[in-house]
From TrEMBL:
Name of this chain's protein: Prepilin peptidase
GO MF assignments: aspartic-type endopeptidase activity
TM stretches of this protein: 6-24, 36-52, 58-79, 100-121, 141-161
E.C. number: 3.4.23.43
Lineage: Bacteria, Pseudomonadati, Pseudomonadota, Alphaproteobacteria, Rhodobacterales
All copies of domain Prepilin type IV endopeptidase peptidase, residue ranges: 15-113
Residue ranges of coiled coil: none
Keywords: Hydrolase, Membrane, Transmembrane, Transmembrane helix
């Protein structure tokens, strides 16, 4: 991985709770909150200059801009929700471009596992552990925050573990 293990280790304790919150709110309310997105951006803004070379830190904001533009276009085309697009943009600065192929594979695996798990639980008695979650009755819609939050959390965890 191209991600610095020390940067991943510094980001992880701040980012992981946000990722878990995104998973929870998207499953329970089918919504990724603006607050979660803004806090994720603030974590990068505060921790980023402390753990990344300054020029790298500044260039990572280009990742945010490109991801946001792509997300806006995909949202306008009906291919993704606005919350998903905003979360992807906020998560983009944490990703080293050299890790993009790895990240796409990680996202693909996480998406498949999250989708199958969600659908199995939705159809099982386990659903009664959280009976009022909106994602259980959302028809064909899937809480993509489950896969997106999971992917960012796993990416930073793998990055941190590579340094051990």
């Amino acid at each position: 991985m191209a991600l610095s293990p020390s940067a991943a280790l510094w980001f992880l304790p701040f980012v992981l709770p946000i990722c878990l919150y995104v998973c929870y709110t998207d499953m329970s309310r089918m919504k990724i909150t603006n607050r979660a997105v803004m806090v994720l951006i603030m974590v990068f803004a505060i921790v980023g200059p402390l753990v990344l070379p300054f020029d790298t830190y500044l260039w990572r904001y280009a990742h945010l801009g490109v991801a946001l533009l792509a997300g806006i276009l995909l949202n306008a085309a009906g291919a993704m929700g606005a919350g998903d697009a905003k979360f992807i943009a906020a998560a983009a600065p944490f990703v080293n471009l050299g890790d993009l192929p790895f990240l796409m594979i990680l996202f693909s695996i996480t998406l498949i596992v999250a989708f199958v798990t969600h659908r199995v639980v939705r159809a099982s008695p386990l659903r009664q552990l959280a009976p009022n979650w909106a994602s259980w009755t959302s028809g064909k819609r899937f809480p993509m925050g489950l896969a997106l939050g999971g992917t960012l959390g796993l990416y930073l965890t793998f990055g941190a573990l590579q340094g051990l």
